[in-house]
Amino acid sequence: MNRPGRTLCGMTTTDQGPDRPATGRPGPAQSGTDRRDIAIAATGLRKAYGDRTVLDGIDLQVPAGTVFALLGPNGAGKTTVVSILSTLIRPDAGQLRVAGHDLAADPQAVRAAIGVTGQFSAVDGLITGEENMLLMADLNHLPKKEGRRVAAGLLERFGLTEAARKPAATYSGGMKRRLDIAMTLVGGPRIIFLDEPTTGLDPRSRHTMWQIVRDLVADGVTVFLTTQYLEEADQLADRIAVLDGGRLVAQGSAGELKRLVPGGHVRLRFTDPVAYERAAAALRETTRDDETFTLHIPSDGSQRELRAVLDWLDAADVVADELSVHTPDLDDVFFALTGNPATPRTAAEETLR
Ligand SMILES: Nc1ncnc2c1ncn2[C@@H]1O[C@H](COP(=O)(O)OP(=O)(O)OP(=O)(O)O)[C@@H](O)[C@H]1O
User: Fold this and answer.
1) Is the CB of 74 under 6 A from ligand 1?
2) What residues does the ABC transporter domain cover (predicted)?
3) pTM score, whole prediction
């Protein structure tokens, strides 16, 4: 998912700019989280199915009120991590704390503090959105009146009030996903796990979902999400961990991960072979592509380096037909770390399936 570049007088840039400020903010002091406000902590997490080791010693920490994205290709073990942290399956080894509770010693307390929206919807299509919500309210032992109030509030918040009395089977994919998350929130969890929350959604629904996540974090909720989409991790996560071959091969902010890989360059494309040759002679350290009359100049994409390239071109009296700046993005990081292409399908392809 390389982002389309910005264009400046025929230049495109995939520069992501300086690190964005963290999406999350520390939530209010929460009972149940440990002293350092770490919402989720895993040390030495291991899981094997038969002789296939899926998780081979995972260490991670998620501060309360932040978004943590676990990124990995198909089959990397993302769902397994979520299933373990949300008490659905048992690990073979590892010390795990969620919401301040030891997972092995007190799984019930963990369950009471978290919400989980899995890849497979918990929505019952045969009943209405409202009935699904009221069912969740019952499961959470909310008194009837309180349940109706909470359900109506969440349906409103997720733009589902109008559709609330229609069978959920008639909802679009995005609406079902929103209903699924609304149902997860009925019990007021302070930590929520979202397993691939936007897989299969069209771009508009994906953006709606991102806003939902941002709103949750603004309310102090901790979000642990898995995704195959680098852009999603880039957009939402305070910290990203890349899972590959049973291990976390990197952890950090999007900016930190991008700094792990070199490869920034300025690309100049010419239609006039004479201008191409003059530019190639004027610029140092270029890589040539004589078939497309394109030059690649190593660059960090900074304004200063860009100006130097333009000055060289001016001095040589040549005009490039297209100038683009490419700084490493998470796709490059993912490829460098895992040797896999970023994702087997792009988000756009996914929506066409
Ligand atoms: N119950 C099980 N029994 C045996 N193998 C399993 C079981 N559950 C998962 N696996 C295997 O564990 C590996 C990790 O699966 P997991 O679903 O956690 O990956 P994932 O990263 O979530 O993949 P995807 O992106 O496709 O959802 C896969 O090879 C899968 O086949």
Assistant:
1) yes
2) 40-270
3) 0.74
